[in-house]
Amino acid sequence: MHEQACTRALPHDDLVQLVSHCGAIGSSPMAKPLSDLQPFWQRVRARAGVKDVRIHDLRHTFASTAVASGQGLPMIGKLLGHTQVQTTARYAHLAAEPVRMAVIEIAGTLVHRGAWIGQSSGLTSYEGIAAQLQAALADPAIRGIALDIDSFGGEVAGAFDMADRIRAANAQKPVQAFVADHALSAAYALASQAGRIILPRTGAVGSIGVVAMHSDMSGALDQKGIAVTLIHAGARKVDANPYQPLPEAVRARIAGELEDLRQLFAETVAEGRGQRLDTLQALATGAAVLRGEAAVFAGLADEVADPVIAFRAFAAAPRGTSTLKSNPKGKGPMMTTAPEDHAQPSATTPPEPASPAAITPPQTTAAVMAPEAIRAEAAEVAQVCAQAARLGIQIDAADAVAKGVKPEALRAKVLADLAARSDAAGIIATAPAAGAKESPIVAAAKKSAAASR
Questions:
Q1: Region of 8 on the Ramachandran plot (φ > 0 left; ψ -120 to 50 alpha; else beta)
Q2: 81-85, 216-220, 225-229, 244-248 — which is least confidently predicted?
Q3: Strand, helix or coil for residue 334
Q4: Catalytic residue among 64, 125, 151, 185, which?
Q5: pLDDT of residue 182
């Protein structure tokens, strides 16, 4: 007759107690093989102080531990003697969910189309960013999205649609922008849609404006004796062509179009920044470029920190939460900032990196919880502590339960400790093309991904 008990995987401490007492109560070498394990098993449970555990529960414990360590269900099923993988999946129901992050690089000049053109070309396309963003949203294992930004800006075409996509993505999964070291003009339009913007002390953000350039080549052509005749249909077909001086009426019309785009730029930034920076405040910056603490004070950014350290904290959190120039290709107006226009300020003392938040007991008392809920929460705390022990992090489960620490807080602490120890686990990074200078954030992500294999 089988014992009536809920099938479960054992906490680590209980399992250790059972295994350590099996040998102590074992039969004499001269004894006959056991035909009934129950008397022996009852003595083991009594010595270990775990009286409600069935032998069958050990199979669930084995399956859950194997899945948590990365073993495949088919192999585990064979070891358990299962013929159906669905049965094995039920045995592994307590396996821990891995924490994975997507890293999307936004570097160099930003262009509308180009799909998978790499950083080695000096370009990043909105089309390619959109494809990576969609892939991250579609993958259920991805818990958050990091935008690794180092760009002076790019084309207007496609920029605001891409910004809208990032804002929509942030409503589904946490998105944070890590500036290393520039997010200017069009690049800032994208960064402003993230939930948080982190930049280093010398990091630069802003340049909320638009610029276009007209080149008048008529004088140089005259000196060379070259006359260019434009034959066209439509009075404005050849406006702003480079073979004639720019008429004042055409100049005024283009300036008006750029001002409309600047207004749209500021409105887009305000949509992403919310109460931190409204449309009028964005316009009031006058397309200025601000660095470090000045950018945070103006509402253009949220935090001054080492981007790599901030990325690790973002990856370690349970759900990814923590604390215009002329276009040489003639594709239209640009939102960009020339790098030589901004000298580096003098060095300042770096801020101390934030330490992982301590676990604090909740304000509500256990008295308001139903007994079933209390038991379920205590079991979940014990499970988290057992998983942490397998990862080399010791947490006193009894003490955590007595203090009323929530399972979510325990998980956050474990992940923070892992991040501090090994750059966090299970990071997904999009590698730049060969020959390109690798960003420090992607380098940290790749190192973590390799260490977790």
A1: beta
A2: 81-85
A3: strand
A4: 185
A5: 94
